[in-house]
Fold this sequence. Notes:
One of its GO terms (molecular function) is flavin adenine dinucleotide binding. One of its GO terms (biological process) is ERAD pathway. This is FAD-dependent oxidoreductase domain-containing protein 2. Interacts with SEL1L. May interact with OS9 and DNAJC10. Interacts with TXNDC16. The protein is an alpha/beta fold. The protein folds into four domains: about 20-175 and about 330-400, FAD/NAD(P)-binding domain (3-Layer(bba) Sandwich); about 185-330, FAD/NAD(P)-binding domain (3-Layer(bba) Sandwich), CATH 3.50.50.60; about 415-580, no CATH class; about 590-625, no CATH class. Helices cover about 25% and strands about 20% of the residues. Strands 1, 2, 3, 4, 5, 6, 7 and 17 form an eight-stranded mixed beta sheet that branches. It has a six-stranded antiparallel beta sheet with strand order 18-20-19-21-22-23. A five-stranded parallel beta sheet has the order 9-15-10-11-12, with helices on one face. Helix 2 runs parallel beside helix 10 (about 390-410). The relative contact order is 0.08.
Amino acid sequence: LGLALYTGSLRVVSGAAFLYHDYCIIGAGPSGLQAAYFLQQAGRDYVVFERSHAPGSFFALYPRHRKLISINKRYTGKSNSEFNLRHDWNSLLSHDRRLLFRRYSRDFFPDADAMVRYLEDFAALLKLRVQYNTAIVHVTLERNAQAWNGHYFLLTDQDRQNYKCSSLLVATGTWVPNVVNFPGSEYVEGYETVSISPEDFAGQTVLILGRGNSAFETAENILGVTNFIHMVSRSRVRLSWATHYVGDLRAINNGLLDTYQLKSLDGLLEGDLEDLAILKDKKGKLHITLRFYLENRNTSAGIDSITLPQDELDNFATRAPYDRVIRCLGWKFDFSIYNRSLRMMPGKGNKKKYPQIKPSYESRGTRGLFVLGTASHSVDFRKSAGGFIHGFRYTTRAVHRLLENRHHGVPWPSTVYPITQLTNSIIKRVNEASGLYQMFSVLADIILLRENATAFEYLEEYPVGVLAELETQTGRKAPNGLFLVIMEYGRNFSGADKDVFYYNRAVGEAQHAWQSNFLHPVIYYYKRLPTEREMRLRPPDWPLPRPDAVHHIVEDFLTDWTAPNAHILPLRRFLENCLSTDLRNFFAESCFLFAFTRQKLPPFCQHGYVRMQGLVGSEGLRHHAVDAGLLEDYTPIDFSGDSPPDSHEGSQDQLLRDHTIPVRPLQHLVNTKDE
């Protein structure tokens, strides 16, 4: 049987043997394993290629000083697993409760070795099909009209074994170090190889090139043993608490900011690294100069014959020589293995380290090639968490759902509810959904309205960048309008130059909800699905085009949007205005009176009371409703006649004789308070 299965998957192309799979995943890092999990759960034919002997090889080396900056909050005071994932930035999604990262580390900022163990167990316990020690060295296309996407992907490994796939998922991350070439750059040590022993830097003067977390992590490690540390980069320092972007400088690494601002010799400088030059003197000291000073000069003649900046400006900032210069400039995507036929092009500007992809995470150059994980961060770079585990675990699931619909006819998962559950459904999701919370402004819940707004279909965590393609991408129809539930920060609250601690930085009144600064839910309403043109022309920094109506749920200090007056009531009234209906809940007595006083019953009465369902009053419930002001305190009916209390005829006679119900209480019931 094994031989038959093997030969069934063995094909020949151009005289070379190759193995076929529907899905090929390159890379067994977190995003590759996450994609493999979803494919395995769906029963799909896939394989994961990993160049190392174990998964998560990036974390075996990085970060160099072994402390992750992804938080591991083990206690939240709640038992809701979905809510707890909002504060667990390391776990991947699975059905196995053993594979929660809090079982692997007790540290708030865990050691990277714990991540290595976690990924090994994730692959082993779930029996994911990972082919280790397989480095894919070349990827090209084979045109074929019968293939899913009009072509197959042909992969070759280091042993010249060939593989053929219908869909290719690239999960290699960004691992090629960024290098800036300038005169003297050969004297620079790389973050990937520099010593991590503080003793090796004792009494030395160090210059660090870079301004990100790897640069500050390196500085933090040697801060107490060096003479001083200078740090230079082309941009100013960006603090994550000001930008609300987790990839910017985190507080755990920013000790050098203290020593700089409190004048303890260390310092930060801004400048274009390509304009620099480094000269080495006879004592091995490194001198910083500018490239233009070396133009038309013979550098081999020695440093004494070259004019340095301090020769003309005697207080030049970097006039003191350095013992070591360390490069900490991050990483970029490896484009080298992809044939030109795939048209894998780098992005533009500050996104050039990532491949160009669509908001659906599909390559702009090749259909059927999807980029997952850190390498897909161009979709939300410097905006959301798509470059980190706690973000791309959800975008990877979104890609899987898109593939299930495209190739297997499985529509995007959805649930249909009666319209009376609309408010509850939204409140539930904004209070517990982790995907919305982490991938704010990128993933949204979609609420598709049924005809006459009698029911709705709820889709979770759909990429808003492809909203115009919703019907083709999900297999769901949106002919009657839709709501989108998304999380956002305030428009002008985030930025490197923003003071996020200013007085009155938060609002608390529902009428000022649109001015909320901190992360809060926003509900967009569209009478029809936005078009591609409307998506392209949306206002700058808006995740969506202008809606027919929009509602902000006021920010909350506890991120608990369950306050009846501040959160739920304004939301319900917004939904009612959009739908021209009454979404309140009523007791059976109120529905009974509405049947006599209104031409159309509220949806709650239609779905409950009219169908012999709903909340029928008991004595205890009646007293509770009276105490709450929801019902009038009527005089109990006295069954003192011959008919028993449950006699229909006796009850009818008593009601006919009872003249104590005036018009005013009837009106009070019709306008009953919110349930």
